[in-house]
Amino acid sequence: MEILANVLVALVAALHVYILVMEMFLWQRRPGMSFHGFDVEMARRTAPLAANQGLYNGFLAAGLVWGLIAADPTGFRAQVFFLSCVIVAGVYGGLTANRRILLAQALPGAVALAAVLVAR
């Protein structure tokens, strides 16, 4: 079960690296604009906000990676904390920005957190 939990945590970390890249580096290019369905003008106007969001996603990914490589109890605690942050961010984003965020961010975080807790 511990291997499955680690794989799920790594996948959530990879998802947040992907979001970081989309929001910080590709926002005003075709992949980034189609990510949210923005036209060129909207992407240009929202690029600073997206870059800020991307940076936060990078912090989430870094925390999850730290949780994977740190020895317990620190690693376990870091995983629980950062997965909880992922879930809160996903729920908030799902309620305030786009419901898809509930499935794309909160649900994977919740599944990974459940696996981490069961593996403990």
Task: Write a concise keyword list for the protein shown above.
mainly alpha; 0% strand
SSE layout and pairing:
Elements: H1 2-24, H2 30-36, H3 40-69, H4 74-96, H5 100-119
Explain what you see:
Helix content is 86%, strand content 0%. It contains five helices and no strands. Helix 1 packs antiparallel against helix 3, helix 3 (40-69) packs antiparallel against helix 4 (74-96) and helix 4 runs antiparallel to helix 5.
Percent strand equals under 5%
Determine the oligomeric state from the structure: single chain
Main beta-sheet strand count, sense and barrel state: none
- Computed over alpha carbons, the radius of gyration is 15 Å
- Secondary-structure class: mainly alpha
**What's the order of the H and E elements?**
HHHHH
Number of strands: 0
End-to-end Cα distance: 9 Å
What helical percentage do the residues reach?
A: over 70%
Low-confidence blocks of residues: none
Count of alpha and pi helical runs: 5
Mean pLDDT: 95
Q: TL;DR?
A:
With 120 residues, the protein is an all-alpha fold. The protein is 86% helix and 0% strand.
